[in-house]
Design brief:
The complex is a heterodimer. By secondary structure, chain A is mostly helical. In chain A, 80% of the residues lie in helices and 0% in strands. The N and C termini of chain A lie close together (8 Å). Chain B has a single domain, classed as MetI-like (MetI-like fold). Chain B is 71% helix and 0% strand. Chain B is built from twelve helices and no strands. In chain B, helix 4 packs parallel to helix 7 and helix 6 packs antiparallel against helix 7 (158-168). The longest helix of chain B has 37 residues, at 87-123. The chains are: A mainly alpha, B mainly alpha. Chain A binds chain B through residues 11, 14-15, 18-19, 22-23, 26-27, 29-31, 137-138, 140-146, 149-150, 152-153, 157-158, 164, 247, 251, 254-255, 258-259, 269-270, 272-274, 276, 278, 281-282, 285, 288-289, 292-293, 296, and chain B through 136-137, 140-142, 144-145, 148-154, 229, 232-233, 236-239, 249, 252, 255-256, 259-260, 263, 266-267, 270, 273-275, 277-278, 281-282. Chain B: Pfam families: BPD_transp_1.
């Protein structure tokens, strides 16, 4: 296990390193100087040169890259030259919205996926099972931003319930949670549809297993047999999918935050793209990419802990 | 032994096109309603894109401020937007963007991924392993994030977005091509072909590619659906197709400001995206059953 963990850790560090190279390389090929973009077309060559110097953009590329790596490792990301605020501070602020949003989204997704998946598996071949399957196909085909707008039409616009956009801040927890409900439901519906398919597949497999047939032969109903013997076994592959879908949720949150104008990481990223605040863009992109890579590693490790059979094969 | 006969006994897990038997292929299409519905929906998008090249009720960019936000009427079946542009015409011409975006991403991913996968299968060893590790690195980087980064660097456009999406999904093609090619390469007729001196490229073209084509087509269909989803999302975020060119994504973004006046403005492009993605998902899932009757049940 230790050897396996060390190996996975090494791969993640290599991937993180490769990601910094990719992100840096993509953003360094930008046509036009960054300082020119900030100062506008009226800027004199002298002032452009001065700002380049101030931002360290006159240094050779490898030195700029080295400085950035150092910033990332120490966590001291510097000041945004657009907003004149600490980049680290702004990102922490944004995470206070994105974090809860992703968490609520996942909880809602699971609350949908488990009942739907179990019904789908137990009633496969019946009308209700087919209905659940069709609903999940529909759910998967609705992109988050379409679903989000649909929810805005139904609740704030037609029923005058819940806010359509904005976020009052956590100083007012009631209203803050209220404004996260629709975005979280949007994410949760899509995730629920995706995860329910894995739940159904996993439960169906368990239902066909010999030990469950034995349990049925003892006289348990399908539901009882599933509760006592099946669920734990079915959970193993589902945990993996839930972990992987967590990364999908983080990416989905980027889009959903922009549907509901929530001041989270996704909105900060897109604002920075619009303002050409490229230093901020590369920091946010790296943080999201790092989160995805680390979650994937943890999922991989948890899989081995949960299923001893996989362990013995490693 | 003819090639067709070999194809039937081959591949424990892969699927084959079974083109020798058109009659049963047709029956299998009929027996897989979801694949058929998917095919019809995808064809509908392609046909709409083609029709919109030569005809739309109004020019999709024609502005008519006097009749803006008119709602559905006999002169504008789906109504008009905030500039008085005909929504039906814009929904129709957006199909072009969708087909272009999906095709471009699939093309890029296949162009890089299939040769790389074949190479990894043929060479094996350290070079093959290197290709796989590189694929893992690319795969770990989220596709949408790659597209946003690239748009930030070189400016937003449909093409920029789809280059990023195409490259991001290249690893899928590398893996699928490699694992299926390995199965084919381990068979005896490949050994025979090699023994009488057929060159690697010829073996790939004559024996490997035809045998793995069904699996690759399924992957292409599924990637098509992922790509148009990503394209619509990027357009919605303002990082894809540039206005005034209509796309379902940027129509949705525009319409969100007018939800209090005409909610149907959001519904039409939303429905279009939904039906397209649903169609290519159903087709991709169903093709497996059509190509390989053994997989059914």
């Amino acid at each position: 296990m230790i050897r396996f963990t060390a190996r996975r850790l090494a791969i993640v560090i290599a991937s993180l390193f490769a990601s910094t190279l990719i992100v840096f390389a993509i953003l360094a090929v930008l046509p036009g100087s960054t300082a020119q973009v900030i100062l506008g077309t009226q800027a004199t060559p002298d002032s452009v040169r001065a700002l380049n110097q101030q931002l360290g953009l006159d240094k050779p590329l490898w030195q700029q890259y080295g400085n950035w790596l150092q910033q990332l490792v120490t966590g001291n990301l510097g000041t945004s030259y657009i907003s004149q605020q600490q980049i680290g501070e702004q990102i922490t602020q944004a995470l206070r919205v994105t974090g809860p949003l992703v968490l609520f989204g996942m909880l809602i997704g699971l609350a949908i996926a488990f009942p739907a998946g179990i019904i789908g598996a137990l009633r496969s071949g019946q009308r209700s099972g087919a209905l659940v399957g069709a609903a999940s196909q529909v759910g998967i085909a609705i992109p988050t931003f379409v679903g989000g707008i649909l929810l805005i039409i139904i609740f704030p616009v037609k029923l005058h319930l819940l806010p359509a956009s904005g976020f009052p801040g956590w100083s007012n927890p009631g209203q803050a949670i209220e404004s996260l409900i629709l975005p979280a439901v949007t994410l949760g519906l899509v995730e629920g549809a995706i995860i329910s398919r894995y739940v159904r597949a996993s439960i169906s497999e368990v239902l066909q297993s010999d030990y469950l047939r034995t349990a049925r032969a003892k006289g348990l109903t399908p539901g009882q047999a599933l509760r006592r013997h099946g669920l734990r076994n079915a959970l193993i592959p589902i945990v993996t999918v839930v972990g992987l879908e967590l990364t999908g949720l983080i990416i989905g949150a980027i889009v959903v935050e922009n549907v509901f104008t929530l001041p989270g990481l996704g909105q900060l990223l897109l604002q920075s793209v619009a303002n050409r605040d490229l230093l901020m863009v590369r920091d946010i992109v790296m943080i999201v990419a790092a989160a995805v890579l680390i979650i994937n590693m943890l999922v991989d490790l948890s899989y081995r802990v949960l299923d001893p059979r996989v362990m013995s094969r490693v | 032994m003819s090639e067709g006969a070999v194809a039937l006994t081959l591949e424990p897990e892969g699927v084959s096109l079974g083109r020798a038997d058109d009659q049963s292929l047709r029956r299998r299409w009929a027996a897989s309603p979801s694949a058929l519905i998917g095919l019809i929906l995808v064809l509908l998008v392609f046909v709409t894109a083609l029709i919109s090249l030569v005809w739309t009720p109004y020019p999709p960019l024609a502005v008519d401020p006097a009749h803006n936000l008119s709602g559905m009427s006999s002169s504008h079946l789906l109504g008009t937007d905030q500039y008085g542009r005909d929504v039906l015409s814009r929904v129709m011409s957006s199909a072009q963007i969708t087909v272009y975006a999906g095709a471009l991403a699939v093309f890029i991913a296949a162009l890089i991924g299939i040769p790389a996968g074949l190479y990894a299968a043929w060479r094996g060893g350290a070079p093959g392993e290197a290709v796989l590790r590189l694929a893992d690195l690319i795969y770990a980087f989220p596709a949408l994030l790659a597209a946003i980064t690239l748009s930030a660097a070189i400016g937003a456009s449909t093409t920029t977005a789809m280059i990023a999406i195409g490259i991001a999904y290249t690893p899928v093609f590398i893996r699928v091509t490699r694992s299926n090619a390995l199965l084919v390469l381990s068979s005896e007729y490949i050994l025979a072909a090699r023994s009488y001196g057929r060159r690697p490229l010829a073996i790939m073209r004559r024996h490997v590619l035809p045998n793995i084509s069904a699996t690759i087509i399924i992957q292409m269909t599924l990637l098509f659906s992922l790509a148009i989803l990503a394209e619509a999302a990027l357009d919605y975020l303002g990082l894809g197709t540039n206005p005034p060119t209509a796309s379902w994504g940027n129509m949705l973004q525009d319409s969100q400001n007018y939800l209090n006046k005409d909610v149907m403005l959001s519904v039409w492009p939303g429905v279009a995206i939904f039906l397209t993605v649903l169609g290519s998902n159903l087709l991709g899932d169903g093709l497996g059953d059509v190509f390989d009757p053994r997989r059914k049940r």
